[in-house]
Amino acid sequence: MSSCSWPGRNLTMQQYHDNEWCVPSHDDAYIFEMLTLEGAQSGLSWSIVLAKREGYQKAFQHFNIEYCSKLTDEELETIKEQYNIIKNRTKINAVRSNALAVINIQKEFGSFSTFLWNYVDDHPVINNWVSEGQMPAQSPLSEQISKDLKKRGFKFVGPVIIYSFMQAIGMVDDHLRTCPYHSTNR
Fold this sequence. Notes:
By secondary structure, this protein is mainly α. 54% of the residues lie in helices and 2% in strands.
């Protein structure tokens, strides 16, 4: 069996691929972390973001949604200056606005997970790609979720970001069919 090639020889990328990518998660803090990291990636490579993941975890108290929702402008500026994260102010401010939007969804649906997983009737979309070139950058479902999240006040949630996010939290399994980590091979 041949694994997905996108992690290359980067150990951090390989570990992410093997242990997290396309693995279903229903943990709101983890889901919020992935939404934040995918948004931070916009315009950058995933390896850069993963290299800064620990900085993000420290800066945002392991993506404690309540904590993130209450951050002041001054605290966000301090985070920008003192932590090893992407220094884009708009992306950093999105952590707070997205946390507030998540809290509103939690009040309405019970959890962010429930809201998101309703889009796939609680079952991941399992694709059977034979080459990485077959994987789309976005899908009609990522377009719909993106539109719905934007209406709810989320930032950095375009359809391409959301497709990657869906992979990150396991709503979509895009491991190659020949990859030992594909759902049917586990």
